[in-house]
């Protein structure tokens, strides 16, 4: 689906039954989560290697804006997410395995970036492990 363009993909989706459409939605969300985990890991490596400096950028944010043609807000969100999964690989694993969504990781990453509360992020690891619902699985 969508190999020959958006309109053709939309037309194909209009022809599938409800069960198959639900499966398409779940599969697309799982793909988004897995690719976001992969992107966050890559950004964490960019930061660790200081690759943005080799490319002439003063910050990872500027590097991401240039490479991804994205907004500063999106670049910051990716950078915080990368930092989160780098410091807490269990969060990256939870995203990769669809136990949490992209938005939940963004909230965790924003909280982890807080100058005071961010230091306490690891204290809640045990709580997260107690409740591990499986999302988007049929």
Structure notes:
This protein is mainly α and 138 residues long. 70% of the residues lie in helices and 0% in strands. The chain contains 8 helices and no strands. The protein has helices at 6-15, 18-49, 51-54, 60-68, 72-87, 89-96, 102-112, 125-130. Helix 2 runs antiparallel to helix 6 (89-96) and helix 4 crosses helix 5. The chain is globular and about 50 Å long. The chain starts with 5 loop residues before the first helix and ends in an 8-residue tail after the last helix. Mean pLDDT is 85; it is low at 132-138.
Features:
138 residues; mainly alpha; 70% helix
Quick overview of this protein structure:
The protein is mainly alpha-helical and 138 residues long.
Number of helices: 8
The helix content is: 55-70%
The shape is: globular
Number of strands: 0
Structural class determined from secondary elements: mainly alpha
How does the major sheet shape up?
none
Instruction: Tell me the radius of gyration.
Output: 18 Å
Please mark out the parts with pLDDT under 50 across 5 or more consecutive residues, or reply none: 132-138
Ends apart, CA distance between termini: 21 Å
Order of helices and strands, N to C?
HHHHHHHH
* Strand percent estimate: under 5%
Mean pLDDT: 85
Please describe the topology of this protein.
Elements: H1 6-15, H2 18-49, H3 51-54, H4 60-68, H5 72-87, H6 89-96, H7 102-112, H8 125-130
